[in-house]
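Q: How would the structure tokens look for this protein?
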Amino acid sequence: MSKEFSIEGKKIGFGQLPFIIAEMSGNHNQSLERAMAIVDAAADAGAHAIKLQTYTADTMTMKGAFTIQDESSLWNGRELYDLYKEAYTPWEWHEPIFNHARKRGLIPFSSPFDESAVDFLETLNVGLYKIASFENTDWPLLKKVASTGKPVIMSVGVSNIADIDESVRILKDAGCNELVLLKCTSTYPATPENTNLLTIPHMRDMFDCIVGLSDHTLGIGVAVGAVAIGAQVIEKHFTLRRSDGGVDSTFSMEPEEMKDLVIESERVFQAMGSVKYGIQKAEKKSTLFKRSLYIGKDMKAGEVITPEHIRVVRPALGLPPKSLESIIGKRIIKDVKAGTPLTSNLI
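A: Here is the predicted structure in token form.
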């Protein structure tokens, strides 16, 4: 698998700054005007991409199929069909949203949820695809997406290693050569305790591909931590204001948080550097402020040096502190004042 690829002029992968995706999902609240405002807010915050979801209620489920009965769920009591009808992005919105995103310097793409969605997205010249966690074992969909030859980002929530391995093989065999796997905990919201970031470098080594995090926790701490251990792609649900409501608003990020995420993820990426010991070039001037041996009180020529005569202080103009034991008992060769750096030519 490729360790780096480019989409619309943006490089993604090893050695590159983290690629930050703002997931619009259903946060447009069925308003195209709001969808455009979300695009603008993501661009202003410094995100690199905006992601939609391409489905209809009828391509996801059917009326009367299931009603959520889970008091811990944000959507308890909601029928799936009605939930998807509320959350879906009208297909006729995709093109104007994509066009506006590109004008604002964002890379627009989407998660298709069935094969007809892939055909539709191909008409919009989408640059890459996202496979959602709940679709990552849908082999017909994986084959369809891979056959486009476009890069694929796949979340690995609700999957065991065998599931992931099978899906990766299906994608490769069907023509996918550029793959990103995102660690994902498919709970809404997720908690730091069930995120298990250490899976990220393990997944990178196991599948030899670019890795990242699809993050449903609140705040930016988890995502920034993911970058510190090797995540090259971060995806977060994004809205204008959580208080505006909507199916995903509770666990979505606001513009100020997105801006902080972009800044801090870049900062931690730059700070990672490489394994390095020794004095760095930037530290050269600071070596002056290490400690050294100084004459602690006035001494006469020929006087024997005792511990009482020596101070270990800053700056480093005298002998290093490790020389202390070796100079005790030796004689000063000339008169010296307290505050004089003790150098070898004085002994």
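The first strand starts at residue 4 and ends at 7.

Residues 304 and 330 are 6 Å apart (CA to CA).

Upvote if useful.
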